[in-house]
Design a protein that fits this description.
By secondary structure, this protein is an alpha+beta fold. 27% of the residues lie in helices and 21% in strands. The structure holds zinc ion. Residues 250, 252-253, 255, 270, 272-273 line the site of zinc ion.
Amino acid sequence: MIELPESYTLAKQINENLLGKRVTAVTAAASPHKFAWYYGDPADYASRLIDREITSAIGLGIFVEICLSHTRLLFSDGVNLRWHPKAGPIPKKHQLLLAFDDGSSLSATIAMYGGIQCWEEGNDFDNPYYKIAKEKPSPLTDDFDKNYFNQLLSPEEVQKLSLKAALATEQRIPGLGNGSLQDILWKAKLNPRQKTNTLTKEETNRLYISIKETFFEMAHSGGRSTEKDLFGEPGGYQVVMCAANKEKPCPECGNLIQKESYMGGSVYTCPGCQPLA
Ligand SMILES: [Zn+2]
């Protein structure tokens, strides 16, 4: 799933490799998918995209936005984006395929669910999560500072929540999902079930620092090792708290890493580093 480290990485790789490429052919919704969400009729995508050039890309939380002349193309968290240089194989099933004037192509494939939105300037995509991702400060920026973080946690309805619910739902922090959450909490030595209103000042500070440092490291290492980049390669940040390390010793303390289901997803914790007080 695309979370902040991946949207940052994908946008960076698009900016490094795809700028100036002109779209020459578009295949949209060729493989029917129950949980693929388009903006408007995908049959109209060709007319919006053909002959447009890629001018930039930006990572916005769980979204990757590609700017083309007068057109925007947005991919959300469940989309696998791959660039295929001339000789590269193209996935058999895809939900969007763009061919470029240099013979390369970009495919977007949805596994479980995902959104592919294309619109022309002036007819902008109206979606609450997209708006949040554009308006709220990214943890990778200086605007996401200690004060801002304290304010984010201060409303009563947030204080009542567990850390997992407070940090990784509702896009309170754009791009912080259940995947990134695991190492963030492990490094902060906090349990996902701990209630936000029980955090001491020191724990809140540790959490803030972990969000900043872990995201910085994940983003600048090319994303998480559990996800793939624009070239289909795993990210360079080695995730500790993930399925591959279940029942393996924690690198900090040697206790075995536990997997549990919690709030509609798996959480990985170290009983030594993250006891539930
Ligand atoms: Zn540990």
